[in-house]
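Field guide to reading this record: the first block holds the primary sequence, the second block holds the structure written as C-alpha cells, and the final block holds curator observations. Each block starts with its own label. This record concerns DUF1272 domain-containing protein, catalogued under organism Novosphingobium piscinae.

BLOCK 1 — SEQUENCE
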Amino acid sequence: MLEMRPDCERCGTDLPAEAPGAFICSFECTFCAECADGLDELCPNCGGELLDRPTRAKTHHAKCPPSTQRRFRGPA
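BLOCK 2 — STRUCTURE
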C-alpha cells in the first residue's frame, strides 16, 4: 500500500491523499506537479521516473490512513 505522503519534498506544498496533482517515484519520493515538471519528471533523490500518484478516497482514510509525516526540510 502506498504511504501517501502529505507534502512536496521540494517546496512543502500540501498534497492531500484524496486530491490529484502529486507525483511519486518507485521509492515514493513525492513532489507537486510544478516541482515534478521543473525536475523534468525525474526524482532528484534516486533518479527514478516521477509518475502521477493515484488518489485515495476519503472513505478509505479510517482503515488505510495516509501518512502524516512531512518530508519537506526547507531551504538548505
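BLOCK 3 — OBSERVATIONS
The beta strands are 22-24, 30-32, 51-52.
The first helix runs from residue 33 to 38.
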